[in-house]
Structure formats: structure tokens, C-alpha cells
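Sample pair:
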Amino acid sequence: MSGALELPSGDTVVQLRVVVPRPEPRRGRAAAARRSASVDTIDVGVWGKALQRRVLKLVDGADVVVRGALRRRFWRGPGGPVSRYEVEASAIEVVRRG
């Protein structure tokens, strides 16, 4: 679910992925039954030490509320420049334990 990553600078970031169910569009029941549930996955980075300790104790399946800023990260990969979006978390609240 989550893991700590030490950067070349010596800083540590804890990364986790939050899975969010996507609401089904309004359709007939038969069409909805044929479709599989779809989800969005959101990468979250946690930089503060106190919040990192709490996040590392989370269990898979916990419902959480994440507050933070959307960031776009850039780096050079084997095939050239790469980027991705992630939420830089300032707070994570457990709503229901997994």
C-alpha cells in the first residue's frame, strides 16, 4: 500500500496509491450489470515526518480523506522526459479502518 523512498538529496518521501471508485453513469440496470466497476488510482506523496509515520501504519482497504496540492513531477527516464501527477498530502484522515 505504501512505502518509503529515500531520495538522492537524503530526504524521504512516503508514497501510496489511493483507489477511488468512479460513479457509474445513469443507465439501465442491465447495462450497469454488464459493466465492471471502474476506479481511478491517485498517487500520493507524503513529506512530513509525523504524517509519514501515521501513513505507514495504514492498512489496505482503509477509507481515507486526503488533503493537499496537486503536483506534476518531471524526471528523465530511459526513453526521455517523463511526468506524472500526484497529490502532495498535507493531511490524511482515516474515515474507516480497513
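The first helix runs from residue 29 to 34.
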